[in-house]
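fyi for ur records
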Amino acid sequence: METASEKTHPDTEFQQKRGRGGNSFPLFVARRYLFSKKKTHAINVISLISVIGVAIATMALVIVLSVFNGFHDLVASFFTNFDPQLKVTPVMGKTVAADDPILTEIRQLPQVDVATETVEDIALAVYKGKQAIVTVKGVDDNFDQLTHINEILYGDGEFQLHTANLQYGTPGIRLAQDLGIGTLWNDFMKIYAPRRDGQLDLSDPYDGFVVDSLISSGVVFSVNQGKYDKNVILTSLGFAQNLLGQPGMVSALELRLKSGSNLDNVKAKMQSIAGDKFKVEDRFEQQADTFKIMQIEKFMAYIFLTFILVVACFNIVGSLSMLIIDKQNDVITLRNLGASDKQITQIFLFEGRIISVIGAIVGILLGLLLCWLQQQFGFVKMGDSEGTFVVNAYPVSVHYIDVVFVFFTVIIVGWLAVWYPVKTFTKNHLKSNLPTRDNNNAN
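which gave:
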């Protein structure tokens, strides 16, 4: 049985906490104040509202950033079907010799699984009176091994580039709609490209163009990105080189690496080989403008929601101000027991910080729960009817680095929001209402 001397009296526990110094004593008292009943019931209500406000703002940060991540990953998956893992392009000029020694060395690296030469430029496509400015992209026969082009084809045919003397064209789905050709057209599609050499006959407007024809491959592709679906037509490398007046020249060397290769290391090695003559780009660098805009939008959303978080944190200041008034007699007792003004101020600072931490943890857990529910069940739809958008529900992708960043944002904002007001309020309140220990001792 425990003897009376072995029992720990609350006052003894308090003295032990105070005697340890540092932050242990203020944190001990702050924790008791937070969960104890106050004389004025409204203080408990305001404290609860403060926690809820911080939690909701934190939850909103987690959800909104995860939705932006979802759109980022969704767009990246579109480009994955069409863009190569790595793309080597000349720094100066549009084209370079296909047998350039640097390109040959890069192509022969052991990590390279598929290498495709491509050439592309602007041309005019005409079909039965309809015309459109297009980007003619000529590719090697192994283009379907380089990309996932076969996964984004629509129609009854198959992806092919040429047969004997016949040259096939595979347009983007929106380009096909603009030209009124669907997935299959019967006649020849005329392709006009500016003539690059020789003297022009000004009396004949057509003399300034090289003209060739394509027939339908029976399919169209859909990347779900307008820059491809509305503008690009795929054809053979030889057709494009002849049409554009670039025999033996390429615009880029597109590469796919072997499974298990370290993309960053291989890219760095290629760039060291390329020097300042070529640039080596991964998929995100190939679409730098698109992803940069998405990052800016995500950052702006983070800034606006952080402002909302700041407003929510000012509820904590109101709660602490009322708590300081409510605990005035307790503060006198603490000072008589030897607590310094600094420790008393830290009690209320810790009170605000504990509220911030609880709100941050609750908000993050709720945000992760709602993100998981959206991923599993897609409660929030993109539109009223299915098929209107590429995806039916808002995409969500939780990046845990964002979760950590949100947690520290809430903690920093919460601590800064309470530091100056609480320190000023407690300092003025102590001076105006409480005698100093020196005065007590003198009396």
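The first strand starts at residue 86 and ends at 90. thats all i got for now
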